[in-house]
Amino acid sequence: MTYTVRIVFLFIVTSLICVSTQAQAFSDGYESSAVDPFWTVTQQFGAISLTTEQAHSGIQSAKFSSSFGGQREMHLTHNFPTAQKGTFSIYFYDVAPGQETLYEKLNLYNAVSGESASIGTQDFDAFCYTAQMFNYTTNVLQGPNANCGIFPQTSTTNVTRTSGWHKLEINVAEFSISFAIDGAPVFHSDGDYSFDSVDIFVSGPFWRPNTVAYFDDFSFQGNATYNFLGYFNPLLNDGTSYFQGGRTIPVKFQLAGPDGAYVTDAIANIQVYRVIDTPTGTVDMSIDTRPSGSSNPGTLFRFDPVSSEYIYNLSTKGYSSGTYLLRTTLNDGTTHDVNFSIK
User: Fold this and answer.
1) Which of 23, 87, 99, 262 is most buried by a 10 A CB count?
2) What is the Cα 209 distance to its own chain's centre?
C-alpha cells in the first residue's frame, strides 16, 4: 500500500516585508492620495504626482512631468537592506513614440558590484525600446544589440516603440537575468546577479524637449531563500530511524535566513511515500513518539514560537512494515527528504 499526503501550496503577500529572512514582495497601483513611503522621491526640474489622466488598472498612475532649467532627474527609488533576486515589473505609458525625449526606465542597481539592469526608453532613440546590463566598475555593457530604428546600439531591442501601456519586466533568477517587454523576451544573460535598489525614473539633459511619462502597477516578487537546518529527533537525517507502527512521529525542523535569524513565517507542507516493503532503519526511536491521535489537520506544518520549530505530528496509524520517504516542500520551491522505517 502506498501512503501519500499530497501537497497544498498557498502563499499570498500583499505588503512589503523588509527583512532578509524571507521572500520580499511589494506592489503599488498608485491608488493612494500620496506616494507610498516605500519610495524615496527625487524631483529635479520636474515633478512626480498621482493622476487620473492615465491608468493601467484602477483610476490612477504615477505621472512624471519634466520642466526646463537644467538636468532633469525624477525618481521613485527604494533601497533594500540586502541585495535581492526576484521579478521586478512595471507598466509604462509611452506618450511620445517617434520623438527623442528623455530616458524613461525601470532600473536596478547593486552598490557593491556596480551592476545595473535597466529597461525602457533612451533619450536618443525615438523608435525602439532598450534593455541593458551595465557594470559601472568594469565599464562592460551588455544588451540585445538588435538592428532596430535608425541608431541601433548594444542596448537596442527589437521592439518598436508604440503609444500606450507596455509592461517592462526584469527577472533576476538564481544564475541568470532576463528582460521582457509585454511578456516577450528581449535579452538574457547568465550570471549570479542581485540588486539592492530599484528605481523608476525619467531623466535627461536640459536641451531635450519636455515630456510626460506615466507608470502604473509596479510589482516586486522576491525569491525566498531559506537555510534548512535539518530534521530533529526522533527523525534521524541519515535515514536510520525506525518506529513501531501506529505511533505519532513529531516531524520537526528549523529554518534560518541569510543573516542567521530564524524564519518564522515560511509555508511548509508534508508528503509521505512508501519506498520499499523492507524496513531499512537500524535505530529504534519509538520512545520519542506517542500514541496516534494528534496529527495536524491537512498537510501544513505549524510554527512553534517557543522552540522556533516547524512541527507536524505525523500519525502512522495504518502504515505497514516498510521504508518510507518523508518530504517537506517549502514556499521557496525547495524540498527536503528523509527516510524512516516502520516495523
Assistant:
1) 23
2) 37
Cross-strand pairs, 21: none
Residue 207 exposed, middle or buried by CB count within 10 Å (0-12, 13-18, 19+)? exposed
Tell me the domains of the chain and their CATH numbers. Answer: 25-222 (2.60.120.200), 227-342 (2.60.40.10)
Residue numbers of the chain with a pLDDT score lower than 70: 1-24, 224-225, 291-295, 333
- Sheet architecture: strand order including 322-330: 268-276, 322-330, 335-342, 241-243, 283-284
Instruction: Let me know how long the chain is.
Output: 343
User: d(Cα 108, Cα 66) in Å, to the nearest integer?
Assistant: 22
Helix, strand or coil for residue 287?
A: helix
Contacts of 205-210 spanning 24+ positions with Cβ under 8 A? 205/71, 205/72, 205/123, 206/45, 206/68, 206/69, 206/70, 206/71, 206/72, 208/72, 208/100, 208/101, 208/102, 208/123, 209/99, 209/100, 209/101, 210/65, 210/66, 210/67, 210/68
Amino acid sitting at position 193:
Y
Query: Please, are residues 54 and 93 in contact by the beta-carbon 8 Å criterion?
Result: yes
